[in-house]
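Consider the tokenized backbone below.
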């Protein structure tokens, strides 16, 4: 079975005041062209279709047109919801779409959605597990001990009674697998969302979403496709690509990659003001000026050369500022209130008032300690 694996489209994404809709329409078109070229039996979209749970009308229309284009190409399309999506909204009309070969996982209800794809060697079972939290799985398995995200995924998969001995099996999942390389764009809290990769043992391929860098975790059978575009400055050096895979008769797996060709790059420019303004670009940029003296109206002048400028600063002045910032002590073994109080003093140059300290104590009690 040949497949194309994409994820984390984040349709409707904005960075600063800039919308990525035009950029996203182009890369969606490139996915359609890749389907025409490779003629896969399946396309996997592993969550975070939209950038927020209530997407804009423009984002919904764009995704609808994308799905219609794929449905005309005689390929099965499988979609799960991610943590940015509303599973309820994503699943609307899924029964009707099934007839067009577009399969959308419903809200997790204690079972895994399963579809079967036929290729020249027989059948491949495709399982779909949308993003789940422990509480969502615990609601259906009250007798199981489900505390961590690993527990949640393990129980959800164990309940599916998957035939690993006699059949080829693929899973779509949207979680943070331990060992994955993260950047600032991923919202992860202290490792609490980690899922141990061993829960996916037995699958011939796990099409993952959630992390923005294209990567395999432990084995190529457990892989993230990453985002089709750079969505933050922390992704500046990422190479964005879709995964084109082939699953053989006995589960042999071959992965190849096809790079996206965006209409704009996202990058950081470090140079003098004169050099920067004389190299105009339509890219999304952060500009770090190396000049030792401030340039009058530098920001306005840079904006003329870089209409999609996200931000700018003076590199040397920033370093001078940073050199005067005191270092925080290690937080290991210290109370959260103490760490926050030190951070507050460092940033603001004064201690918290009694009212502010009381708020911090209350938040720590409600959010931190109750989660232990």
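A designed sequence for it:
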């Amino acid at each position: 079975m040949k497949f194309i694996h994409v994820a984390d489209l984040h349709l409707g994404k904005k960075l600063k005041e800039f919308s990525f809709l035009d950029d996203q329409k182009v890369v969606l078109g490139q996915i359609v062209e890749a389907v025409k070229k490779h003629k896969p039996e399946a396309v996997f979209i592993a969550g975070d279709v939209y950038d927020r749970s209530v997407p804009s009308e423009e984002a919904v229309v764009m995704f609808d047109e994308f799905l219609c284009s794929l449905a005309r190409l005689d390929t099965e399309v499988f979609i799960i919801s991610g943590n940015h999506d509303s599973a309820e909204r994503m699943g609307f009309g899924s029964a009707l779409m099934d007839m067009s070969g577009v399969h959308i996982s419903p809200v997790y209800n204690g079972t895994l959605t399963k579809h079967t794809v036929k290729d020249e060697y027989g059948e491949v079972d495709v399982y779909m597990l949308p993003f789940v939290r422990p509480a969502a799985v615990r609601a259906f398995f009250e007798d199981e001990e489900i505390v961590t995200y690993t527990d949640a995924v393990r129980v959800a998969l164990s309940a599916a009674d998957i035939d690993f001995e006699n059949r080829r099996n693929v899973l779509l999942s949207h979680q943070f697998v331990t060992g994955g390389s993260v950047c600032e764009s991923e919202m992860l809290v202290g490792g609490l969302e980690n899922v141990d990769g061993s829960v996916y043992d037995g699958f011939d391929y796990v099409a993952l979403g959630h992390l923005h860098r294209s990567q395999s975790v432990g084995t190529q059978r457990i892989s993230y496709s990453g985002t089709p575009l750079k969505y933050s400055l922390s992704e500046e050096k990422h190479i964005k690509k879709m995964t084109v895979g082939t699953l053989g008769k006995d589960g042999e797996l071959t992965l190849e990659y096809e790079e996206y060709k965006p209409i704009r790059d996202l990058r950081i420019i470090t140079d003098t003001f004169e050099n920067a303004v004389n190299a105009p670009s339509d890219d999304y940029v952060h500009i770090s000026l190396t000049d030792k003296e401030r340039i009058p109206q530098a920001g306005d002048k840079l904006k003329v050369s870089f209409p999609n400028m996200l931000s700018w600063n003076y590199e040397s002045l920033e370093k001078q500022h940073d050199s005067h910032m005191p270092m925080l002590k290690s937080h290991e073994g210290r109370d959260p209130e103490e760490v926050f109080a030190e951070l507050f003093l460092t940033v603001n140059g004064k201690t918290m008032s009694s009212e502010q300290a009381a708020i911090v104590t209350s938040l720590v009690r409600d959010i931190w300690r109750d989660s232990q």
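Residues 336-371 form one domain.
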